[in-house]
Design a protein that fits this description.
This protein is α+β, with helices and mostly antiparallel strands and 313 residues long. It has 2 domains: 6-174, Fructose-1,6-Bisphosphatase, Chain A, domain 1; 185-311, D-Maltodextrin-Binding Protein, domain 2 (3-Layer(aba) Sandwich). The protein has helices at residues 14-33, 55-68, 198-209, 227-237, 258-271, 302-311; strands spanning 43-46, 52-54, 73-78, 85-86, 93-101, 112-120, 138-144, 148-153, 158-164, 169-174, 185-187, 220-221, 240-243, 275-277, 297-300. A hairpin with a 5-residue loop joins strand 1 and strand 2. Helix 1 runs antiparallel to helix 2 (55-68) and helix 4 (227-237) packs parallel to helix 5 (258-271). It binds 6-O-phosphono-beta-D-fructofuranose and manganese (II) ion. Manganese (II) ion is lined by residues 98, 101, 227, 261.
């Protein structure tokens, strides 16, 4: 793990962080106006992978791309764009983002977010991102919810900042987030139950059996439908999240994208004492082979994730 001491962040990373924060603060204002402004949830097309794009997906991508120009980001990879863009030929950083995560929640006033992952840039645009997830130098998310929050790691713990709506600045709210080792809640899209693989079925049966089963304690079920919101809940009070591979066409590797969803969330969670796996290997030991590839994703409280990994055999 390339750890950056948060008190010694490289000077040339500050403009990137500033642009992310300023754009996040702007986006939170756009989102807060919600139904008073132009429709943010209107369908405007499809991205390269056939996912429906909403107006806010495209707006967020355009805002981050524009704000990151001139900040030292050499390569910019976005869920909303098929190819990596070169923003600054001399830049030191490669930044991947899901500019607007949880788009199905845009029009229902439920938390949505931005996820980002930063690697040192190499000359080759794609190769900058197709490397072990452990080589990320920073990862974070911005959650647009009742509060606008920024969770951020440089590989030496996970910090939480809150946007002060009065000043437009993100202020430190928690210097070191810590995921409890035991989980009281589990999260999975239960409507896919009939498609699940055996280890996932087994884990959910254990969780549902609660105090009458091997677990000997009850668990609650939660599913928000925004990865950022679920991750924030788990970073705050523990729990597990599963988006496993399943038997549906196109879900052989689950739903979530390795480079700009799974890898950054895995780094944030592990830096807060949790664990993240694809079922068989720690996410941070894995290397993406394609920019938009999917990865089965299980993360959360360490003891529970270890149990899920054990069930995968
Ligand atoms: O970005 C993909 C995403 O919207 C995540 O934010 C969320 O965790 C998941 O997909 C929701 O999946 P489903 O549509 O199966 O509920
Ligand atoms: Mn997403």
């Amino acid at each position: 793990m390339t750890a950056i001491d948060p008190t010694h962040i490289p000077e040339n990373l500050y403009p990137v962080l500033d642009a992310l924060c300023a754009t996040g603060a702007q986006l939170s204002q756009v989102i807060a106006r919600g139904a008073l402004g132009p429709s943010l949830a209107a369908g405007v097309g499809e991205n390269s992978d056939g996912d429906q794009q909403k107006a806010l997906d495209v707006m967020a991508d355009e805002m981050f791309e524009a704000a990151l120009r001139g900040t030292g980001v050499r390569h910019y990879a976005s869920e909303e764009q098929e190819e990596v863009l070169t923003l600054d030929a001399d830049g030191a950083w490669a930044l991947a983002t899901d500019p607007l995560d949880g788009s199905s929640n845009i029009d229902v006033n439920v938390t949505i977010g931005t996820i980002f992952s930063i690697f040192p840039a190499t000359a080759d645009a794609n190769a900058s991102f197709l490397r072990p997830a452990s080589e990320q130098v920073a990862a974070g998310y911005i959650a647009y919810g009742p509060q606008c929050l920024l969770a951020l790691t440089f590989g030496a713990g996970t910090m939480l900042f809150a946007l002060d709506p009065g000043t437009g600045r993100f202020e430190l709210a928690q210097a070191r987030m810590q995921v409890p080792t035991q989980a009281g809640e589990f999260s999975i899209n239960a409507s896919n139950r009939r498609h699940w693989i055996a280890p996932v079925r087994r884990y959910v049966e254990e969780a549902e059996a609660g105090e009458t089963g091997d677990k000997g304690r009850n668990m609650n079920f939660r599913w928000v439908g925004s990865l950022v919101a679920e991750t924030h809940r788990i970073l705050t009070r523990g729990g597990t999240f599963l988006y496993p591979s399943d038997a549906r066409n196109g879900y052989e590797n689950g739903r979530l994208r390795m480079v700009y969803e799974v890898a950054p969330m895995a780094m944030l969670v592990e830096q807060a004492g949790g664990q993240a796996t694809d079922g068989t290997a720690p996410i941070l030991s894995l290397t993406a082979r394609e920019l938009h590839e999917r990865r089965p994703f299980v993360f959360g409280s360490a003891e529970e994730v270890a149990r899920i990994a054990a069930l995968h055999g």
